[in-house]
Amino acid sequence: MPLKDTQIKNAKPKDKTYKLTDGDGLHMEIKPSGSKLWRLRYRLHGNENIYAIGKYPAISLAKAREMRTDAKELIRQGINPAQHRKQEKIKRAHQNKNTFKAVANEWLERNVEKWSEKTYLQRSRILAADVFPQIGSLPIRDIDASLVLNIIQTIERRAPAMAVIAQQAISAIFRLAIVTLRAEIDPVFLIRGVLKPQKTTHHKILSPNELPDFLRALDNYSGSFSNQIALKLAILTLARTNEVLKSKWIEFDLDEAIWTKSAENVKQREEHPGQEHKPRVKHTELEHLIGDIILLIPHCLLT
């Protein structure tokens, strides 16, 4: 006779394990410890086997019967249900390693050493904010161009420049998936040209005739002395703004007029000497102004 829920709930443990039979091979083992375990007895290839379905009440009577039906279908096809469950578990674990988010995190990890901190944080934040919520949990092999297009266009409406970066990042992640045999195609390739071209506006360039007046005005600049020094240093060495703002006292040999830029602040990430100029800057005055501060141009003084 089939089991009833009340019969299972009221079953008490005994000194030895005993069974409550539901039918068609399904039964419950009740252990002396009080555990109630679903089991399925079946025959496959002439041999009798026991399939451990799971523990009650996590698996209800209705669910146990449903799992019995599924297992019986596998048995009918000559498949061992226990082995099938193990294979499915391995398959799910493999799929979890191949989600877009898993590959993206691997891509970030591969590049953390060669990127600047700013670049790494920028890519990480775009992925976390705009990409992972949409496709992070999907197997990367299943992501098509329409999903990527929706993400890119959504970002573009808010921040066109960020959309370009997001598109580049997604494409790079798919290329990693392709070379590691986790994807076959980069869907970004199919939507090339979808982003609207962005017009770049450059700052006006000083003409040779304007430069003398600019330098005289700089000498008479009444604002922050640190700003004045930063501007002069950029002009005399043709250094990038970021290199000037992040320069440190230890990089400068003022007696020899040599600036050896540190690898962390230059675009090529390699140390190289600056041009040998003797900038007419009041470095002794600057030292007096900022004391022992590591940065040559401390950001807190910039206005």
Task: Report on this structure.
The structure is a single chain. This protein has 303 residues and is an alpha+beta fold. It has three domains: 5-93, 2-Layer Sandwich (Double Stranded RNA Binding Domain); 100-191, Orthogonal Bundle (DNA polymerase, domain 1), CATH 1.10.150.130; 211-301, hpI Integrase, Chain A (Orthogonal Bundle), CATH 1.10.443.10. The chain has helices spanning 5-10, 61-76, 81-97, 100-111, 117-135, 145-158, 160-179, 211-219, 225-237, 241-245, 283-290; strands at residues 18-23, 26-30, 36-44, 47-56, 252-253, 258-261, 272-273. The protein has a four-stranded antiparallel sheet, with helices on one face. It has a three-stranded antiparallel sheet with strand order 5-6-7, with no helix packed on it. Helix 4 runs antiparallel to helix 5 (117-135) and helix 4 (100-111) packs across helix 7 (160-179). The protein is elongated.
